[in-house]
Design a protein that fits this description.
The complex is a heterodimer. Helix content of chain A is 27%, strand content 30%. By secondary structure, chain A is of the alpha/beta class. Chain B has helices spanning 17-28, 42-49, 70-81, 93-105, 210-219, 227-231, 262-268, 297-307, and strands spanning 2-6, 9-10, 13-14, 31-38, 56-61, 86-90, 110-114, 116-117, 122-127, 132-138, 143-147, 162-165, 175-182, 195-199, 222-225, 252-256, 273-278, 291-294. Classes of the chains: A alpha/beta, B alpha/beta. The structure holds flavin-adenine dinucleotide and adenosine monophosphate. Chain A: Residues 23-211 form the Electron transfer flavoprotein alpha/beta-subunit N-terminal domain.
């Protein structure tokens, strides 16, 4: 079974972002970028399926600028076999990404597609679900456990009230939640080897997909700042303040 | 304009979130219908009919919609969406699971986690873990969006909308429900609680979370947690507050043994009053806390419980 993994290049999760002075967007100049953490979990899951002998090949795909090749190389170093880079400098919304991934699914015919549940820049949480709809495949979102069993996969999902398990026919689309696994770090020899693994360069035009979105970003602002920093000296003072100053008790 | 709101269900009953989504729909303006889909959901439909501002409740009561699995729910929404300019759901795990399928099948974008309505096509939503707020305008013919419930005050239940059955039944041979383990608790639900007490890695283990119980009892609070506490197995995943967990905005949020990572703050910084209890006076949580108490939680919690 072939496993397709979608990875996105995003701001490193440790970085505190700044909004541009003209409020046109977030300022990403000279900001550290990385693979979206949920995508790391997706790659790890795919690689583990290969190590278990369930998957035969792991293909990583990204949609993004030239620099996004770094994240594909990371995926290759972590154990993916080959990569597809769909290069574009435009802002690509989840719907367009899903359309492009649907074309790749059509071409590659994977048994399983694994995506992150959410990209930590746009916080959309849509792409996997959209891909499932466009390919007419079942979906197991927010997965904390993925168990392939013959021509089915059981996915345990993190839902608001607890956990839910669904059985899906394969091929299927899975999106990862935080508890699915703990991603490994790439080792230096693997990083060297990854440089020689095949990486296909494509463009959205190769797939006949128009990436422009009907949603426009009018402005980006910083949220209202909280004025924190007040310390109380004791439990008594805390209770007093909550009662008499904040009036929440 | 006409708006369809997908109702949230909890164990077959109407979930509180729906009243907040209807409030968002009212802010957009126009006729509001609510879709209640599931199996054995008449009571939920009757409850939805009382929500202020709703003109009609449409009920799809069929085994194929049980547990609101994404595939049949998406297909049902596609059948119904033609009558509407907007389709809204709460940004619950159900809304997030189902709505993007509708958007994709209608070839439109989805706006996730909407926190403000400027006009019928222009909305506010948080990006980068809430560290920036984007104003976005959608020129799509159908607007599909999930709504962050904490950003809209729930409508009252004094209405009396009509209730009508939806006859559409879709097929689903792709997915099936296996099982569900729902947390059982007498406490208020995290998303809607007036007071939330959350524990982090500093709690040390799951047993110590009991230290929060007495305080939560006295305050009528829900109990939450940081990701570190969930990952370490102290408490179940449904208690995680944050960018990728639950978003809460209670009157009072008490963070205990939580450092205050961006991702945690994303889930609670809209709380009215924030209290932080942490032994590290440099912990970033103090920068957002209205009242910070530096000290050992194992000494502070019992004292707090006894004095409340
Ligand atoms: C993609 C991604 C998504 C994430 N999503 C979330 C999310 O939704 N929610 C979330 O919470 N995190 C999330 N995180 C994790 C986040 O980055 C932090 O790692 C996490 O919030 C830390 O949890 P913590 O504050 O409990 O632990 P720590 O950072 O380890 O802090 C523990 C705190 O306890 C204090 N402490 C220890 N002992 C005591 C004591 N005896 N008395 C008083 N204080 C004590 C310490 O001083 C310290 O400040 C996410 C991370 C990533 C990468
Ligand atoms: N530009 C992209 N390239 C590849 N995969 C993406 C891209 N955008 C989103 N994805 C995938 O979709 C997941 C969810 O993203 P989103 O729906 O945008 O929050 C990510 O974790 C990726 O797996």
């Amino acid at each position: 079974m072939k496993v397709l993994v979608a990875v996105k290049r995003v701001i490193d999760y440790n970085v505190k972002i700044r909004v541009k002075a003209d409020n046109s967007d977030v300022d990403l100049t000279n900001v550290k970028m990385a693979m979206n953490p949920f995508c790391e979990i997706a790659v790890e899951e795919a690689v583990r399926l290969k190590e278990k002998g369930v998957a035969t090949e792991v293909v990583a795909v990204t949609v993004g600028p030239k620099a996004a090749q770094e994240q594909l190389r990371t995926a290759l170093a972590l154990g993916a076999d080959r990569a597809i880079h769909i290069e574009t400098d435009e802002r690509v919304e989840s719907l367009a990404v899903a359309k492009l991934l649907a074309k790749v699914v059509d071409e590659e015919q994977p048994g399983l597609v694994i995506l992150g549940k959410q990209a930590i820049d746009t916080d959309n949480n849509q792409t996997g679900q959209m891909l499932a709809a466009l390919t007419n495949l079942p979906q197991g979102t927010f997965a904390s456990e993925v168990a392939v069993d013959g021509d089915k996969v059981n996915v345990t999902r993190e839902i608001d009230g607890g956990l839910q398990t669904v059985a899906l026919s394969l091929p299927a689309i899975v999106t990862t939640d935080l508890r699915l696994n703990e991603p490994r770090y790439a080792k230096l020899p693997d990083i060297m080897k990854a440089k020689k693994k095949p990486l296909d360069a494509k463009t959205p035009a190769d797939y006949g997909v128009e990436v422009a979105s009907k949603v426009s970003l009018l402005k980006v602002e910083s949220p209202a700042e909280r004025k924190g920093g007040v310390k109380v000296a004791s439990v008594d003072e805390l209770i007093d303040k909550l009662k008499n100053e904040a009036k929440v008790l | 304009m006409s708006i369809l709101v997908l109702a949230d269900l909890h164990e077959g009953q109407l979930a509180g979130a729906t009243a907040h989504v209807v409030a968002a729909a009212k802010a957009i303006g126009g006729d509001i219908d609510v879709l209640v889909a599931g199996e054995g959901v008449q009571a939920a439909a009757d409850a939805a009919a009382k929500l202020d501002g709703v003109s009609k409740v449409r009920v799809a009561d069929n085994a194929v919609y049980a547990h609101q699995l994404a595939e049949p729910m998406g297909a049902l929404l596609v059948e119904l969406a033609g009558d509407y300019s907007h389709v809204l759901a709460s940004a619950s795990t159900t809304g997030k699971n189902v709505l993007p399928r509708l958007a994709a099948l209608k070839d439109v974008s989805q706006l996730s986690d909407v926190i403000g309505v400027e006009s019928a096509d222009t909305f506010l939503r948080p990006i980068y873990a809430g560290n920036a707020i984007a104003t976005v305008k959608s020129d799509d013919a159908l607007k599909v969006m999930t709504v962050r419930t904490t950003a809209f005050d729930a409508v009252e239940s004094t209405g009396s909308a009509s209730v009508e059955a939806v006859e559409v039944v879709v097929e689903n041979g792709q997915s099936s429900f296996v099982k569900q383990e729902l947390a059982q608790s007498d406490r208020p639900e995290l998303g809607g609680a007036k007071v939330v007490v959350s524990g982090g890695r500093g709690m040390g283990n799951g047993e110590n979370f009991k230290l929060l119980d007495g305080i939560a009892d006295k305050l009528g609070a829900a109990i939450g947690a940081s990701r570190a506490a969930v990952d370490a197995g102290f408490v179940p995943n449904d208690m995680q507050v944050g960018q990728t967990g639950k978003i809460v905005a209670p009157e009072l949020y008490i963070a205990v043994g939580i450092s205050g990572a961006i991702q945690h703050l994303a889930g609670m910084k809209d709380s009215k009053v924030i209290v932080a209890i942490n032994k590290d006076e440099e912990a970033p949580i103090f920068q957002v806390a209205d009242y910070g108490l530096v000290g050992d939680l194992f000494e502070i919690l019992p004292e707090l419980e006894s004095k409340l």
